[in-house]
What we know:
Layout lengths: L5 H10 L4 E7 L5 E7 L7 H4 L1 E4 L13 E6 L5 E2 L7 E10 L9 H14 L5 E13 L1 E7 L2 E7 L20 H13 L4 E6 L6 E6 L4 H21 L3 E3 L13 E9 L2 E2 L11 H12 L1 H8 L5 H4 L9 E6 L4 E5 L11 E3 L8 H17 L21 H4 L9 H10 L2 H4 L6 H20 L3 H7 L3
Helix pairs in contact: 3-9, 4-5, 5-9, 6-9, 7-9, 7-11, 11-13
Amino acid sequence: MKFRSEKEVRAFVKDRHIEMIDFKIVNLFGGLHHLTLPAARIEDGALRKGEGFDGSSIPGFALLHKGDMRMLPDLGSGFVDPYSGVPTLSFFTRIVRRDLKPFERDPRRIAEKAEEVLRRSKIADRSVWGPELEFFVFRSKKTYSTQNGSGFELVFLEDEPLRSAYHACPPFDRLFDVRNVIVLKLEAAGYPVRYHHHEVGFCGQLEIEPRPGNILDMGDGAVLIKYFARNEAHQNGLVATFMPKPICGLPGSGMHFHLWLEKGGKNVCGGKGYGGLSPLAIQLLSGILLHASALLAFTNPSTNSFKRLIAGYEAPTNVFFSAGNRSAAIRIPAYDTDPQESRFEFRPPDATCNPYLAMAAILLAGIDGVRRKLRPEDHGFGPIDDNIFTWSDERRKTLRPLPANLRGALEALDGDRAFLTGDGVFDDALIDLWIEAKMKEVKELSDYPHPWEIERYFSV
């Protein structure tokens, strides 16, 4: 619900017999947290004054001696939470410090700042985004990890092996009604959905794609799709995961981002160039490709992310663009001919990212491309319409590869950060914190013997 005033919220609370007000915040690394107030608190000014909390306990937010913060509800993000046992009106929030100045590490604020850079640049009035969220639903999950053993088991709900389960129908698609319910609840919450379907993975891989919207709504929507999917699965005795590669030998789950820019209500990415794009759109995507290795530190920020980015699973491994080629890092959809819907799709990201940070970084990379009037052919970015897997090994070496692992992406970010910090959207302290935290994950994984290693090397 796009509330415009406290008065509208009060009337809604009264008419709908709302009993609780919920404030939701997203930490630096994409995790969701909440704080709940009795609805009567709105009469005490809770919507205007917000509520204090300990920011030092939220991952990535603040040091212990600077932990006191306040969350202010964004009235335009309100929705009735369908997974609360009592009528609950929920809001995403803006995070401020004690002096009420915006907190520089609030992910939603970072996304807003990137959009402000776009407007100040006069390139466009706004960016329009369309994330595609892929995920798996399993019957159950078991894991254990100790000093002398580790392992996991994911039990399939769908266990009939098909060559491809893409757009499969019931009765094979056993999760059709689960998706229907998720989508109906998202629409009731004010987050319209473009479509949903079964994905390629035969053991319960699904996709939900919201209708395109502005950077903040799509960040909120991506967070809520994960929240709704996990809760709906839980209510059905199942488990949902958005991790990129939970099953070896099956396609991984991505979160592709479709993007175009508008100025004066017109899509300025449509044109008569390659793929129906304008020169501005080609410069925009060139900037994203130029900074792709650094971007992956934010768009693919897990060690598991890079198990998905391997050849043979419609996942990109090289930096180039193409019309309709799903092995490209940037694909121009070939089925849209309306200039007002002209766009391109950045395919590497996955849902382990913080969507606000990911979109902010992608947009800043694109703006850098427009400012520098980059040409993709000058950097070997294509366009390439061939099936690159028919190329010789020698010819494929002419392509620039994406980082092979999280360490490589973090090292690329460390050496290529000016496009993020130049306009004050990101700062060096945040980037340093990000690199340190994610490098710690890299080290922790490398320290643990893998079950495959025990099987392969125990008797060597």
